Every structure is written in C-alpha cells, then in structure tokens.
Amino acid sequence: LSNKVVKNSNDLPIVVVMVPLPAQGHLNQLLHLSHLISTFHIPVHFLGTPTHNRQVQLRRVHDNNSHPLIQFHDFDIPPFPSPPPNPTASHRFPSHLIPSFIAAALHLQRPLAAFLRTLSSKVRRLVVIHDSLMSSALQDVNAIPNTESYCFHSVSAFTVAHSLERKELFVNDGYKDGEITTPTYQQYFPKELNVVSMEQCFPPEFLEFIGSQFRHLPKMGAGKIYNTCRVIEGEFLEVIQRIEPEFRHWALGPFNPLKISKNGGNNKQSSCSHSCMAWLDQQEPRSVIYISFGTTTAMTDEQIKEIAIGLARSDQKFIWVLRDADKGDVFDVNEIRKSNLPEGYSNLIGNQGLVIRDWAPQLEILSHWATGGFMTHCGWNSCMESITTGVPVIAWPMHSDQPRNTVLMTMVLCVGVALKEWQQELVIADAVEEVVRKLMASEEGAEVRRNAERLGNVVRQSLEEGGESRQEFEAFIAHITR
Ligand code: UDP
C-alpha cells in the first residue's frame, strides 16, 4: 500500500504507541492511560526495555485491569552502569536510576524508528505518546508517514507552568536556570517557591539529562498531554496554553482507574486480596493514616526509626509501606538496601498499625473509607490518587517536582498540611507525631479533610457522563480517530 492509499483508507486502524521513561511513577501513568484508551477499542503498543520490563512486570502483577488490546514490546539494550541507591546522598534524588534513563533514551532510538516505520504502513494513523524525558528517542518521528506524536508531561500542570514562567525549560540548548519573571504563584508564596529551584530539586547530572531531552521538544509534536484535569489545575493549564500557544494541551487525567476513583473514599469493603484490606475493614471511618513515599525513596535507618517512634507516639492507626529500596534496573537480590525497623517495634505498636513490606495496593487503600490521611512524598501519581479519592495529605517532599507539588497541595488546593522540617537531613519523631496529630486529630486537620473531600467529589463528578474531564478525554479520542 502506498502512503496515499493508507491515509485515505478508513478501514485501517488507528493505533497508539506508548514510549514511557523506565521509572515506576512514569510507567504507571502511561499504563493507566493505555487502559483508558483501550476501552475505546483502540489497540495500544506499550514499548520498553528490559529495565522497563521488570517494572511493567511488577505493575502487571498488581494490575487487575489487563486488557487484550494492550501489547507489550521489549527492546534489548546494552548493559549500563547501575550503582545501588544511596540514602545519604546530598540530593535525595534517586541518582542510581539515571544510567538506565540515559541508556533507554539512547538505545531505543533506532529500534523504535524501525518499529514505528513498519507499523505506520499498516495503519491509518499512528499516535505516539512519549514521556517528555524520552524525546531524544523520537527525534525523527515527524518523518514517519501517518504518524503524529504527543508529548506526555508526567508532572503537575502547576509544576510545568511554574517552570515555563521561570524560563527554566526550553531555553536555548535545553535547560538553563531562569531569570524569574514573577510566575503566577511566586508572588503569593515567595518563600516556599524560592526553595524549589531546579538546582535544589535535581542533581546536575539529571538536569543535564532533562536538557538533552527537552531540546528536541520545540520541533516535534501534535500536542501535549497531562495527567490532570481542569477542575483541579485549570488556571495552570491556561498559563501553559498562553506560553505555548503552538501546541494543543490536553488534560486527560486522572489516569488512575475510574472504577476506583468513582467511589472516592467510600469503599467499606474491598475486593482486593492484600492482607492489609482485612485489617482496614476492622477500623473506624477515616481513622487510619496511610504512609508511603513512592517507589524511589531510600531512607536511612535513623530516619526510619524516627518515623516509627513518631507514629507509635501519635496514637493514630496507620498503614506504613516500608519496602526495601531496590536498584531499579536488573534485579539483583544482593543489592537490595534493607529498610530496617527498630528492634522490638512490632511489639510496641500492637494493633495500632501495619507495616507493609511488599507492594501495597495504594489506590485500594486510599479508596477505603477507613483511610483518613496520607503521608506522602507528593509524587504526582500519589497526589492525583489522593485528590481523586478525597484523602487529605501530609506532604513530605524529597526531590524533583515533589516540593512544587507540596505547594500546590497544601497552599493552592488546601488539601493537605506540610511537614515543615522536610528539608532537614533528619526529621525527628516529635515532628512526625505532631503533624500526624494535626491532620488526624485537630480542627485544622478536619478543615483540610473537608476541602479534600469536596475536591474529590468535584473531580469524580467531572468524570461522569457529560462532565468536564470526561468530555476532554472523549474529545481527545475523537481527535486522534478523526
Ligand atoms: N505504588 C503502589 N504501591 C506501592 C508503592 C507505590 O501502588 O507500594 C504506586 C502508587 O499508587 C503510585 C506510584 O506507585 O501510582 C508511585 O508514583 P508516585 O508518582 O507517587 O511516586 P514515585 O514512585 O514516582 O516517586
């Protein structure tokens, strides 16, 4: 078939290809988006490397939504250096993962181009959705017939708007720190936002990687996609649209499974089989705080001990996810960093709490009506999951976009309280105890909870038939299948 015939033939399918960054928080989002798109009977190809493979594997195991229209493809890449996590590094950023990002972006380029060319000859339109941090792997995408690409920003619109306003992104040859041009929220929260410059949130080698990926973006792409929705971040999406009018900006979130977010935090009993759910079923409404710091954070034993003591003293029920930090690339059981609880701790907490050492069913926990708070590092997935389930947060950011998400959650949306001492090397037990009590057992906490529940309701309503978020998603599907 010639390209002309292919373009004109309505019989040929529209196919979506996902190109994620091999980091769990990024993979998760595109995997959820794949599920949503496939519910419109559109086939999705989810591409990866063996690095991705292990993580997708992990996600598959915990994802009951597997869909026959999603196909996984793994491309081999040469070995790359992979140091173990270092919880005492000056930047808390998981620098040990950077070599796997660089290797994936570099070595996927050629096999990806070949894959897309072959596929493009069999379809009416090939829609490529790639992580903004995998742009270099796709730099020639515009030359592939029948193909249009969309850049996916895995962070909040607030974070992107703030970076654009500070001129941190897309400057000359990639990243250069910006001259500050009074961003929309800078004037309201000068102190909070001044401590979150790119240099403070990322180590230099990751800034270099961001630059190497972002320098390709201005030349490519039919639009940009965000895991957010207008009822949460409408004004920041408008800022982005104003600064980048050449792109159409699609707010397609929340990507997390609708069947769960629809219920909000009202699931009294869950069908999930993880043992923590049976324990949750026994608890009082909104009485449990869930603690998890995402998939990349490695903490020192000293920090773990302070959290453990603070939680025990707070007198609040809790579920704490304390997984061992693994290397994030080729699985090697000898290089796992063990997260050690203080000796005798399990006797100390009795029935007060549960410590989960494996993968936790986070969405199910947040959706359970016994869950009344979430102590989180404010990774964007976790923020979106807490917002859609209406659960207020205690924000303990570590690195990357997390400090900016903290400002969004606690000061703009007012659905959380911040742990004030987050920048200190060691957060002591007293501070943990105080902030847990504040959220779970004070009038201030109750007010924040009401805000979170209100916003959760608004978001879930916007996902119903005719709602704003649902309409934008359907408009995107209509656009790519036009
Ligand atoms: N997650 C989970 N169980 C765990 C740890 C993490 O389900 O034990 C999920 C969580 O629901 C979220 C993602 O992994 O969707 C973590 O992404 P986030 O952006 O919050 O943090 P990151 O890991 O990228 O720092």
UniProtKB/TrEMBL annotation:
Coiled coil location: none
Domain of life: Eukaryota
Record's keyword terms, sorted: Glycosyltransferase, Transferase
SUPFAM superfamilies registered for this protein in UniProt: UDP-Glycosyltransferase/glycogen phosphorylase
GO terms, biological process: cytokinin metabolic process
Family assignment from sequence similarity: Belongs to the UDP-glycosyltransferase family.
Protein name: Glycosyltransferase
Species of origin: Cucumis sativus
